[in-house]
Amino acid sequence: MTMLGYQNKVLRVDLTKKGATTEPLRMDWAEKYIGSKGLAIKYLYEELKPGIDPLSPDNKLLLMTGPMTGTPIPCSGKLSISAKSPATGTINDCSIGGHSALQIKYAGYDAIIFDGALKEPGYLLIEDGNVQFKDASELWGKGSHEAEATLAEKYGHDYSILSIGPAGENLVTMACINSDYYRQAGRGGIGAVMGSKKLKAIVIKGTGGVKIPNIVENTKKITEILREDTLQEDNTFIYDYGTTAFLEACSDGGILPSKNFSDATDENWTKYNGDVLLEKRVGKRGCGSCGLGCGNFLKFENATVEGPEYESIAVAGPNAGIDDPEAIVKFNQIADDMGLDTISAGDTINFAMEMTEKGVHDFGIRFGDKVKYLEYLVLMAKREGVGADLALGVKKLTEKYGGEDYALHVKGLEYPQYEPRGSWGMSLAYAVSDRGACHMRAYAPNEEVFAASIPPYTAEGKGEMVYNLGVFNAVKFSLCICDFWATLSYERMAELMTLITGREWTEQEMKEVGARVLNIARAFNQREGFDRKDDTIPKRLVNEALQSGAAAGQKIPQEAFEDMLDQYYAVLGWDKNGMIPDDMICKL
Amino acid sequence: MKRLKFAKSKCIGCQLCAQACSAMHEGEYIPSKARINIESYYDKGGELKYKDSFCILCGICKKQCPVGAITLEEHIVVDHTICIGCGVCERACPKKVIRIRDEKSYICDTCDGDPACVKICPQNALTFE
Amino acid sequence: MKITIQLRGSLTKYFQGEKVRSVEVPDDCTAEEALKTVGIDWTAIRNFGFVAVNSRRVMIYDRLKEGDELKAYPKISGG
Fold first, then answer.
1. Close Cβ partners of A512 (under 8 Å, ≥ 6 residues apart)
2. Which of A87, A163, A212, A231 has CB 3.0 to 4.6 Å from A201, enough for a Cys bridge?
3. Given this model, what pLDDT does residue C10 score?
């Protein structure tokens, strides 16, 4: 039966020919992968030839919504932006908040697929069915914030604007895509893919709608679910504190990284914690259809940002040896404007600090240097001076200068700010994530650190744990529903899918979709040549024990890590080399 | 007489109000056809601003309507058999929330005293009092 | 022995909205037992997270000393 919720239409934009066509959505694929993350990966798996250069016109940039996008399903406003990653060579699906997902859906499209590349910098204007290629020569070279402000002035604040900064234009492989000034599709160099297509911005306005069955009755049902489930206190803490709420838990948990992951506590954390940061809060904002409103709009004397999120605080705070809250907020603001992923950019500068201090290579910056920290961000975005080196990221820098003993990345994607020596399952999660070290695929700390009776410092049972977390998030991000609806369950997801599409979905089917998404992402990477040898644990975690905090004395033996990998592959039915067997691939 | 009230400090810009409104009246989630239009945005990234178009039951539309199509008791009612879609009400509305579509005027009717936008507003920025 | 108990997030409802209390608990008791004395049975709370003693995470069955600060968190997820 035809599922409602979808527009059943894909906008395909050929940037080389400057043409736009529409085609039906592959509903047979949507039956298996639903939308957003899962459906984007399926499209890329089918449409991309293996071995292409991610920065060539052969790569595709996919903006993918889900059936719930544009409906009042709580926390359904995120947009998947996906491509092959120039940072890692793996599949890369990003998730951006704000309002652009809804505009795309209301414009009448489930997805927008960008093929090829423009010859000159341009931006795309999409007003429902009307697609125009515009000249961006006046905007090229400008920060993302100035570009967005210019376009908002021209078209109106009700238009959604996705843009890149100088980092994306300069093909820096940690460049992001911005929207609503302070929301990002952050990791894996997604902004560089957009930059390689000379696409400065996408401006969208939709005046259409989304249909679901029994809309009056179902809207009442959704309102009930919003009030009784989404808005319970276990979820609403994110309105009050944003992700600053994680700082104390991670500090107590012994997993808050300091000085390039050389230790995992910071006695100064109260100088930049939620209490301090939120004193400067002047407003609240959320994504389209969000009930929770996680965005904190902060104004310091010289720094303004909606944020900062836990990752940005930790990477530019304790992990850089910095404890100045205004400097951390300024880092976030500049990174957003330059169009750089805060996690990868911060991690790279922190690595450079350690290299300098150890005398391996002088990058001219040491831990705690909050002034140079901000200058280096701009240099990285522009590939100028020392920024030309730093823009390469941790993996390429170790290939050039050494320092592998304290280089924290997997497959070339730099490490998020959760220390696995205090959460062993997280080392597995980072290793097997589909796009390199990512904390959003399987959020292990919640299961083994923020847990009363699960031991964090053991390999036992972690394969299954990471698998279960990964399946849940994979299907959740294919609907898609945001992480902050923490009390979401398989049962609830099935109920919402049934409500929106009019087709009966079961809990079991939700789990199957999740497992299928994990497998197709792996199949994509496998086809690019990835296997067990690339599911790695950084040397620091194996060789050096943490000095302080709850996990003091902990390091992860290589055998324990290998054991976790074995467990994980076994649960998924992959072979000992982490390869999916052919008979599984053909079912995808 | 109860009216819609809006506390912008509580608004998170989710636009669920416009979705609920259009669901009840238009059979789709289609904010462009909603009879309420509340948005928040960052002006040049530096200031959080709000656009708050909602019916405050001021009655100016009724006073200005040249054909007497609009009545106001507990809420606005537009008689589409009389309305000629001239647009005077749209231009006069101080909250810029009236829309002329297919030569007829569409104005908030408070869902007959039980507004859907108020029921769905997750942060209780919209109230009916 | 005397200890302080700090609650975070949705757990503060067990202290009627307060975050911290000084309490008397049996000598050498476990974190689990200490929470029981203030009416918190962690096994019955779906969203119970973890406990920390003097700002360091411990297991729920680890033992406390005089003057310890016991902190209890709900689960939190996201990034």
1. none
2. A163
3. 87
> Could you tell me which of A363, A347, A158 has the C-alpha nearest to residue A259?
A347
* Dihedrals phi, psi of A515, to nearest 5 degrees: -65, -40
pLDDT, mean of residues A106-130: 98
How high is the pLDDT of residue B28? 98
Chain C residue with minimal CA distance to A234?
A: C10
- In chain A, which residues have their Cβ closer than 8 Å to the Cβ of C6? none
Is the predicted pLDDT of residue A1 greater than 80, yes or no?
A: no
Which segments of A231-320 are extended strands (E)?
281-285, 295-299, 304-306
Torsion angles phi and psi, residue A22, rounded to 5: -120, 155
Q: Which CATH number fits domain B57-107: 1.20.1250.20, 3.30.420.40, 3.30.70.20, 3.40.710.10?
A: 3.30.70.20
Q: Do C78 and A443 touch (CB under 8 A)?
A: yes
Which tokens belong to B52?
């708050």
Predicted complex: ipTM over 0.85: yes
* A487/C56 Cβ within 8 A: no
The encoded tokens of residue A523 equal 């199949």
Does C49 contact A443 at a Cβ distance shorter than 8 Å? no
Dist. CA B13–CA A288, nearest whole Å: 7
Range A209-235 burial, b when 16+ CB lie within 10 A, else e: bbbbeebeebbbebbebbeebbbeebb
Tell me the C-alpha distance between C19 and A51, whole Å. 56
Residues with Cβ within 8 Å of A224's Cβ and at least 6 positions away in sequence, in order, are none
